[in-house]
Every structure is written in C-alpha cells, then in structure tokens.
Amino acid sequence: MNNVQQLVVAISSRALFDFEDENQLFETEGDQAYMRLQLSRLDIPAKRGVAFPLIKKLMAFNTHDESLVEVVILSRNDPVSGMRVFKSAQAESLDVKRGVFIKGRPPFPYLKPLGATLFLSAKEDDVRQALKSGYPAARVYPLSSNDADHHPNEVRIAFDGDAVLFSDEAEIVYLKSKLAGFQQHEKTNALNPLPEGPFKPFLSALNLLQDRSKGSNMKIRTALVTARSAPSHERAIRTLMSWDIHVDEAMFLGGLPKTDYLKEFEPDFFFDDQTGHCEDAAKNIIPTGHVVSGIKNIK
Question: Please, where are the H alpha helices in the chain?
C-alpha cells in the first residue's frame, strides 16, 4: 500500500472518460478496430466519465507546493489509445502525468508499485483481483454520471458498512440467523469492533487528506449509508471510533431503499457491495461503484 501519505487513485480509462461507444466496437469487432477508432479520434477529447467529478475534486487538493493526490491511468488500453486518454485529460486541465497501458493484460499487479489507495475500473474481474490483493477497488457503472459542479469545493463520498467499510462477518450472521439473530449478535458484540473491510483504508486516507489540507478551500464529507438499524448501529459507530476515523453523516435505514437518501446527500461516489443497491443508485444518476467482495459476491 501507499506509504508516503499521498492518496493515489489508479483508474481505468473507461472510469475516467466515456469510452462506451469505443468499448462497444471492441466487444463486437475486436482490438484492431478499437485501436483504429481511437487513433481516428486522437484529437477529439473524450466526454467525461462516471468518475471524472470525483477525480477533478480530489486533484483540487493539490497546490503548487504540495501534491496530496495523484491520479494514474491504469488501463487495458494499448499505448496508442493511451495517447487519447492523456489528450482528453489535458483538454480538461487534469494534471495527470502517469499512465500504465498494458493492452489487454490484467492491471492489478501494477497496483503495488503505484502505491494505489483506490482502484476504479469498469471491468469486474480486475476489481475482484485488486480486492483479493488487498486494495480498495470498485467496478464503476459507466452511465451513472454526475455533475462536478455540485458542491464544487466539497468531495462527497457515501459508503455502505458491512462488506465495504467493515468485513462481511455480520452479513454472514444475517444470512444464517435472519434479522432477529443478527440484531442479537450485534447487540451482544457492541463493544467488540468489527474487522476491517476492503474500504477502511480508503476512508482512513480521506481522513488523513482532510487533516493535511486544513486551510484549503476543498473539504471532504463522508456518509455511512447502511441497512443497519438500532440496536446494531452501536457496533458500527464504536468500530469507527476504535479506528480513530470518522464519518460526517450516518444513515441507519433499517432496510429502506438507499436511493432517496443518496439523492439528498449528492455523493460524488457511492460504494456498496450489493448489486441491487448499486443498480438502483446508478439508474438514478448517482455515480456508483460495486465493491465485489464479501459473502454476497461469491461466484
């Protein structure tokens, strides 16, 4: 993991820019047709992708004196297509300097030398491998775009709890013992912190970024959006306290649909382990990442 206290986002080209037309051609006609199309559009900047608002805001934490956030393109694209990615970033005034383009090979081995704090990709297999390797990672829903001008000086990120910030321990109990057994288990273990989930390091990094950027115009606002309700809320809160990290908002919805609450929060990104929650959010134009981990995502 990254040890220099710099938040490093490794992101695929489809997560940062809208390459859905090009990807459709790749799926139907192969890589050579894809490369020819990208080359023909080399001087045409790509449209913004689902993670663009998040990346734009995170990079706004950087100053002339200090680079707190780095964004690296980590892509299955070929190097020629990679030129268009860089040109598109330049057209958007995104100061992206590094990129790794590996033409169809799995990208996750490069997360370690990059010191990645977060990996965003549209390809589920790559996300699964990154999570297995211990990196916070999510499969983005490319069409769930948002407007970076919403809350321009504030990064807003919403997290599910179990199997995302926390391990899937409690979800396994729920599946075995249903709601009553789950609530009793969590009440009994309220003083025992939950094990860490895959996105705990990313939340920690966001807390650190906020601390290191005091005095900046940019702020971070985080929310825990979970199906938990009282009395199981206590263990979740106490777990965050034991980690000495915080969220700004906590929504214990007791199984209510999350989408309406997310609309009010207006996150730059929402991370959840359940496809149903992710699909509902994405349909409502909420930038969404599926954390393909935990008991609910075993193939």
Answer: 13-16, 20-29, 31-40, 52-59, 79-91, 111-114, 124-132, 169-188, 200-212, 233-243, 259-265, 275-283
